[in-house]
Amino acid sequence: MLRISGLSAGYSEEFVIRDICADISENLFVGIIGRNGSGKSTLIRSVAGLIPMFKGEILYNDISLTGTDRTDILSYVPQETKVLFGFSVYEILRMSQRSYGSFFGKFSQKEKRRLEEVIERFELKEILKRNVLSLSGGERRRVMVARGVAQGSDIILLDEPLSGLDIDNQVKVFQILKEISLEGKIVMASVHDLNMAAQFCDRILLIDKGRLVKFGTIEEVLTYSNIKNTFGIDVYVGVNEINGKRFLIPFR
Amino acid sequence: MNSGRYTGLKIFLILIIFIISVFLGVFFGSTGSILGLDAGFGELFNLRLPRVIAALITGGALAICGAALQSVLENPLAEPFLLGVSGGSVLGGTIWIVSGAFISDSVFGIRFFSFSGAIGSIFLLLYINRRQGGLSPVNMLLTGVIFNGFVSALVTIFKAFIPPVKLQKVTLWLSGYIPYLSLNDILLETIVVLVISFLLVLESPRLNILALGEDIARTSGINVGYLRKRVFIYTSLLTGIVVSLTGLIGFVGLIIPQMLRFAGIINNRYLLPLSFFAGGAFVVLSDLLSRVMSGLYSFEPPISAITAVIGCPVFVILLRDYYRERGGV
């Protein structure tokens, strides 16, 4: 269980998010939605420990994440990764393993198996030896998401994992993240596409101007009034007859 | 070229080049003649071998520093002389020449003063950067560039006080000069350079992860601030040592790691040690060329001129092929 209570954070004393509370249990895929600049990235980065927390607490299984080594607990996939040099895809995946960080670290069998699993899952076999800088934007994004998953942590935090992906890759990536959450992990991702969130996420965390509007199931959060109040647009909220999930169409 | 392919072969080739250049450096004399015609074993081991070792640790240290700094500053154009430490070292040496020009002509004076200048500037730069939560790349580069600018202005002012006879010495040293020393003279430097270079190599896996960005590195269990500080101190010490020994030899730190990357050696685990060997070989060969020219034309061109004249065109050719193959960075 990941417990975020009263979390306020931001950059150099300026609050970006205030008093965010959410209890997230295992097996859940949580989508964070909100307007541009509402604090989605800040929320993810503060949970990841990348920016200082001004107030509040983040507990994982009742242990505070402040000051603990989070490597095994959570992994983070940034919105954009500027890889500096042309490493091979395999090398990048290999870097996610704990043994990699020390010069004499030995690549364990367990780590090897985990990498093989991720390679298969993300269909990376074909491009394993390719130079990461020569990949297309979509391929590179897939590799970086795979790297985050390969770290083997219990919580996976992703900042806009779908940006720049075509519909096919969007579905593939979210499908995998959904599967991974069902294996006992917590997946949290900021999402712009409300329909993708409605199709794949189990819970939605809606924030506006740095404050929590609503945290709950799709049915609880993705309603006409919540969307109208947050985004200022009219949407038709329908139900997909095939799978019973909600969908949203903006109208004027 | 694909990254990671034929790595073993590439390592082998670089080591062969390294061994050949050391062999050439030691056995070829100032007129390009081989052993026996102009040198006995005495000269070989007392004069040339130490000079080759000095060239080797200079090139090796500058290249490995360049490779490490390019990762840590997240900038492929980074090189050891950008940090400001070289400026401090030059200032120290110049101060010695200004004051000591009238006292003695000892080669140790200049080395001691310039190394002290390097150490002083390391502390100063760390002090200036102390509030940044462990050295941000932008701050490191900016303070380095500003510090170098300030120091080179001071050097220019000091030059006015130097008698013309000694002025040439400063100019020569500023453009890189590998002295004839004895083995004992450079023993300490050699050991320290090798030890620090080894410590840098140990950082290489963390430098790889840092190349994926600071956020990923931090969430992969790396204390990025301390990593940057360690690499800054190691590279500054190495730079200080080699500048005090051989002056400013440009381009090695920038082009050697880049050339190796063009050749497909991306992983810092290989790149750092191979930069050391390739940089060492490069400076040894450049020094050999400089010595041969001094034998033929009784003028010894500064080593920095040779590294630039050879290095730059080779670099441009490699860069062109690299873009042609890839169509981009």
Determine the most extensive contact between two protein chains.
Answer: A-B, 37 and 33 residues
Whole-angstrom Rg of chain A: 18 Å
Low-confidence stretches of chain A: none
- How far apart the termini of chain A lie comes to 41 Å
Report the portion of residues of chain B in β strands. under 5%
Largest sheet composition of chain B: none
The biggest sheet of chain A amounts to:
6 strands, mixed
Outline of chain B, from the CA principal axes? globular
Spatial gap, N to C terminus of chain B: 12 Å
Please identify the structural class of chain B as seen in this structure.
Answer: mainly alpha
Low-confidence stretches of chain B: 31-37
Principal-axes geometry of chain A comes out as globular
Q: How many distinct helices of chain B? A: 13
Overall residue-averaged pLDDT value of chain B: 84
**Quaternary state, please?**
heterodimer
Helix content of chain B: over 70%
Number of DSSP strand runs of chain A: 12
- Please list the strands of the largest sheet of chain A in the order they lie side by side: 6-7-8-3-9-10
